[in-house]
Amino acid sequence: MAGIRHRRQAVEEIPILAFYAAPMDERAWQVLLAAIMLLATFKISLITYRRRAFPEPHYDWEKIDTSDLSFPDGFIWGTATAAHQIEGGQSNNWTDFENRTGKEPSGIACDHWRRWREDFDLLSELGVSSYRFSIEWSRLEPSPGAWDEEAMQKYSDMVDDLIGRGIRPMPTLHHFSHPSWWEDRGGFTETSNLPQFLSYCERVFDSLSNRVKVWCTINEPTVFSAMGYTLGQFPPGRRSIRLTLRVMRNMMRAHAMVYRSLKQRDPDCSLGIAKNVTLFDPANRWSPIDWPVARLLEWLWNGAWKRGITNGRMLWEKIPDAKGSLDFIGLNYYTHFITGLFMPTSADELDFAKREHETTTEFGYPMYAEGMRRAIDFVAELGVPIEITENGVADSSDSLRPEHLMRHLWIISEAIKDGRDIRSYHHWSLMDNFEWAEGYEMRFGLYSVDFDTQKRTLRGSGEMYREIIKSELSTPNRGRLQQRVEAKEP
Ligand code: GCO
What is the CA radius of gyration of the chain? Predict the structure, then answer.
């Protein structure tokens, strides 16, 4: 007996043997503790090694020559707009909301519904090869089942005009606005409303698909859901997490339905969604609050949607048709969101944090071009070609836009060099327009618009964009693009 006790004492003096001699649950704790320490040491050394001051990457822009761009042959250059923001004279869920809340009314906006030909001259002046715009459902179907052929004809004329200029039309079927009657029925909150949306999409598709080959189904479903149903800044101005999740799922269902049906009508058409990828970064990497908040928001904003497309499951519900329902992914990228303990609960409180060295844009959020690369890498995982469907900045004095443009183009050019399949870049926006809850204060245009006279004037950044397009889209490339557009005509 004494001998055995002696041996056990000896065993306990040797640490590794003591570990095995300890009871099971004690051992588990020790393993856990060791793992945490190992992980912490690893992370600290990694951060020290990379000398990163922030959890997310930041580049030393002073050392980067952003004019060193190289885009492949056939890269598509464009600009983007949306119907409610430019057409003017609308009567839809947004005008109802503007009237009800006393927000700045959209009014005649850029009067584009009447001036569209002159506005297309601006596209030609810029030399773009693609134009992303949206179709206004409330114009085409002002009351349930009543179809306005004249309005449809105008969209059809627009398409012909664009093609005649060698510009690819890229329509979006839903860009935040829809008929008031559909909103009154609950809009995207009710699954039973989706067939009405589908039949509108089918009808537009049947009229234009002999000439239009690339379509965006829905613009920024997450922004629409969060702004309209959590923050209450978009119609219908609700504040309910339950409804937000329901709308998120139904927008995915709507996209999937439209995708399946239109693909059946024309298997050669290319359909995608325009997804706003906002990145969420913890204010302080060591904070036990900031980090999980960032991950949660990322999971909800970007992850939930991506899982819908990749697994056919979204936010605990099955949407089987959503699986693989993309021919391309449209990426709208603007900024990152720095998360902390005190998160805003309404858009009025939205006080965007920024890193000390970052420039604040007029919208209030920071310019963070590095995020464009992260957003590209994120959507690249979907395995379909990428079209940059929006990127731009609110900058009335045009003092930031040139640098903003160059940084983002440089990031895209580098991403292409690294093998990312990016086919196009659409600058938001062609001209100043109605910026939703912000009204006319935010100026995103390559052309400034004087809303009293409707005069459009090319900004310095617009000239710069034109020069970039001219040098990147060399004559032989333009010829090829022209041939492709012509080949698609009926
Ligand atoms: C959105 C849009 C555009 C905006 C643009 C600038 O995200 O709200 O798709 O309609 O005008 O992003 O904020």
Answer: 26
Contact 388, 333 (CB under 8 A): yes
Tokens representing 462 are 């617009």
Please name the residue that has the structure tokens 């004279």: 89
Sign of the CA dihedral 352, 293, 58, 81?
Answer: negative
Identify the residue whose C-alpha is closest to ligand 1 atom 1.
220
* Confidence (pLDDT) at 478: 40
Tokens for 158? Answer: 């627009």
Query: From ligand 1's centre to the CA of 59, what distance in Å?
Result: 26
DSSP H/E element including 468: helix 460-472
Residue where the block lists tokens 């004249």: 150
Q: Is 472 in the pocket of ligand 1 (CB under 6 A)?
A: no
- Determine the Cα–Cα distance for residues 434 and 277; give it in Å rounded to an integer: 22
Rounded to 5 degrees, what are φ and ψ at 69? -105, 145
Q: Which atom of ligand 1 is nearest to the CA of 435?
A: 11
Per-residue pLDDT tens for 356-381?
A: 999 999 999 999 999 999 999 999 99
The answer to whether the CB of 353 falls within 8 A of the CB of 338 is yes
Residue that is written with structure tokens 């930031």 in the block: 400
End-to-end CA distance of the chain: 98
∠ CA(207), CA(212), CA(218), 5° rounding?
Answer: 90
Q: Identify the weakest region by mean pLDDT among 41-55, 148-162, 181-195, 391-405.
A: 41-55
Q: Are strands 422-428 and 386-390 parallel, antiparallel or unpaired?
A: parallel
What is the pTM assigned to this prediction? 0.88
| pLDDT value of position 480 | 39
Per-residue pLDDT at 490 exceeds 80:
no
- Check residue 109 and give its pLDDT: 98
